[in-house]
Amino acid sequence: MKRILTFVLIVFIMLPLACIENKIGRDNPLESDDSSYDDTSDDPTDDTNDDTSGVKPGEVLRAPIMTGPTQGLSYIISWEETGARSYYVEESKTSDFTDVVSYEVNVNSLEFSHDESGQIYYYRVRTNTGVSDSDWSNVVSVTIAQSPWDLFDMKYMSIESGAFTMGDIQDLGESDEHPTHRVNVSAFEIGVFEVTQKQYTAVIGSNPSKNYGVEEEYPVYYVSWYDAVKFCNILSDEAGLGRCYDENTWECDFSQNGFRLPTEAEWEYACRAESETAYNIGNEESDLEQAGWYKSNSRDSMRTVGRRQANAWGLHDMHGNVWEWCNDWYNDWYYKTSPKNDPTGEITGHYRVKRGGDYSVEAELCRSANREHDEPEDRHRFLGVRLVRRN
């Protein structure tokens, strides 16, 4: 009887243990006899399955389409976003890519900056999914511009540093043009022409000029001082230059290399081009008739830029056509306290300076020394803009 009870007890204990062991063996692939089992499918260290593009090994991917500018100084090359793990980009000075600089990036654009005027750079890209690479993309070529002005089809002149007598040398003007004083001006670049409607529209996307002459090569008008400096900032951004204007305070940082409005001293220095006469090519009104559009010769209409005689430095329309905004705040007694070196005007004020006259005014208002002003928010048909910058 005792032997029977002992046997039953052993069976009762061992049977559940055997069942448990059998279940563990069935659930553990390492102890399975099934040769078809793939023990790599759940391996967390295996990265061959990370690609989410659906690309199979050996499959040739469609090359992304690359885009970029045709010329620039600082510029961005971009391409289609394909969801690839990374992109291989090649840059070369030769169209056959025999000498390349290579980049591997995980974004779909790269910024480049070069200063070799006239050099052509070539770019191409292909995708990397971790499984397969695409063919190379189309080739984009970028010609390095000679200067930022070239990017916007603007002609300019480089003005050397120098000194001149600023103010009413001929004693023909108002008290705010006195006293005459010597001023030293640092080198700068200035537009040969007033900004045209075509140039302004190409950058801003719309033409503010209306009703009084809408032509691509007419100077842009209905531009406030604020409009003008925003235009300068946009040009600077697109050329990869430093912005001159803080659009919160409207202060100008003259240490930046971007586009801006001329100081009053720069404007008169460029207008005079070493002359000390009433107009930049002479003292007589007959000289003005050759140099600019004003009341007596304009037939009350602005004209295409560059049709009048240039001054000695090759600048057109410094007299007449449209007034040109300057950077300075206006003060009628500023010349009494103006610094000798690169004066920039008052720290603050109510009006901004404008210079040069327009097509509707009498000759004396077009003189090189004449000073006028408007509120910075003013827009009217006689008011335009000319740009400068320093390297």
Summarize the model shown.
With 391 residues, the chain is an alpha+beta fold. Helices cover 17% and strands 20% of the residues.
Explain this structure.
Strands 2-8-7-4-5 form a five-stranded mixed sheet, with no helix packed on it. Strands 15-14-13-16 form a four-stranded mixed sheet, covered by helices on one side. A three-stranded antiparallel sheet has the order 1-3-6, with no helix packed on it. The longest helix has 26 residues. It is built from five helices and 17 strands. The protein is of the alpha+beta class.
Search tags:
five-stranded mixed β-sheet, 391 residues, 17% helix, four-stranded mixed β-sheet, elongated, single chain, alpha+beta, disordered N terminus, 5 helices
Sequence of secondary-structure elements: HEEEEEEEEEEEEHHHHEEEEE
Largest sheet: 5 strands, mixed
Count of distinct strands = 17
Strand content: 15-25%
Instruction: Determine Rg (CA atoms, Å).
Output: 36 Å
Give the helix level as a range of percent: 10-25%
Please state the overall shape, judged from the principal axes of the Cα atoms.
Answer: elongated
Structural class: alpha+beta
Q: How many distinct helices?
A: 5
Q: What distance lies between the first and last C-alpha atoms, to the nearest angstrom?
A: 113 Å
